[in-house]
Write a structure and sequence with these properties.
By secondary structure, this protein is α/β, with parallel strands linked by helices. Helix content is 37%, strand content 20%. Helix 3 packs across helix 4 and helix 4 packs parallel to helix 6.
Length: 215
């Protein structure tokens, strides 16, 4: 399968790229600084790395062209001084490029601060948005905009909601589902998050849904 990855230089993105390559997929990664992947020893005959910005619609479309699916490991800055919505605008460019290139499968990330219609009332719906608004207001604005750009489109999406990513070794164990229905915790290793994203290339359980995931 040919997969375009955005956010490939981040902690989850790098792991997703490596897992995709290990599984035999061809990966195209659009990154601002290709040297970051080289320094991370991420080189492979089936990896195409192109330099470009999410703000450049032509570069985004070129990266998406010919893909079977898109995985976005993009996540906003948690700095309280961050301003603007570059990732929201970038995600809109991704959605537009996918529509133009007739690529329908989108797999990405969000937070349980944002609800899925299948959720039941849950404490996370009350606590997490308040905490996010107080601690990371711009990040919440970005995540809300990024998510809406995808869910309001006609794309075949799965957006995994994560709470507390860690750098611990992969466990190989994932809980997933909807708040108030399923027993989903908070912490999850980045390696397991990446594995969940990759698994959604063939798993049809969460099409057009936003499952919460944890270890």
């Amino acid at each position: 399968m040919r997969v375009t990855v955005f956010g490939a230089t981040g902690g989850i993105g790098r792991l997703a790229v490596q897992q995709l390559l290990d599984a035999g997929h061809h990966v195209t990664a659009l990154v601002r600084t290709p040297d970051k992947l080289t320094r991370a020893q991420l080189t492979h005959p089936d990896l195409t790395v192109t330099a470009g910005q999410l703000s450049d619609p032509a570069a985004v479309r070129a990266a998406v062209a010919g893909a079977d699916a898109v995985i976005s490991a993009l996540g906003p800055s948690l700095s309280r001084s961050a301003t603007g919505t570059p990732l929201t605008e970038g995600t809109r460019n991704i959605v537009a490029a996918m529509n133009e290139e007739k690529v329908t499968r989108f797999i990405g990330l969000a937070t349980p601060s944002l609800a899925d219609p299948r959720d039941k009332p849950h404490w996370k719906h009350k606590v997490l948005p308040v905490m996010a608004k107080l601690m990371f207001p711009n990040a919440l604005t970005e995540l809300t905009g990024m998510t809406a750009a995808v869910t309001d489109s006609g794309l075949d999406y799965t957006i995994a909601r994560i709470t507390n990513p860690t750098n611990k070794p992969a466990t190989g164990h994932t809980r997933s589902g909807f708040l108030g229905h399923d027993q989903v915790g908070s912490a999850m290793t980045r390696a397991d998050i990446a594995a969940f994203l990759v698994s959604q290339l063939t798993d049809t359980r969460y099409r057009r849904a936003m499952p919460a995931i944890s270890n």
